[in-house]
Amino acid sequence: MWDSFWDFIWYTLVIFAFVAYLMILFWILTDLFRDHKLSGWLKAVWIVFLILVPWLTALVYLIARGNGMTQRNLEAQQVAKAQADEYIKSVASGGGGKSAAEQISDAKALLDAGTINDAEYEQLKAKALS
Fold it and tell me: The whole model's pTM is what?
C-alpha cells in the first residue's frame, strides 16, 4: 500500500487535514444554525460558499465571525448548565419538582389503591416532609 516511509507521512498529514477540516466545517455549521440574528438567506450563502470554496470560506468565516462564535458557544453552555442544574434540583428533591403536599397526595392515592401498605405510606410521607 505504501511505497515508502514518506508516503505514510504524507497520507497521515492528508488524513489529519481532512479530519481537521471536517471538525471546522461542523463547528461552522453548528454556529450558523445557532445564530438567530443571521437571516436564512445569509446562512444559505455561507453554506453554498462552504461547498464551492471550502478552505477559503472556512478561513473567512472564522476571521469574520470568530468573536460571535465564542459568545454563542458560551451562551449555549450556560443554557445547558442551567438546564442540567434544574434537572438535578428536581431529581434531588425526591419528588420530581412536586411540592410536599402533592407527594403526600400521590402516596395517599397509592395507599388507597392498595399498591403500598401503611408503613410504606408513612415512609413516603416522612420523606416528603423532610
Answer: 0.59
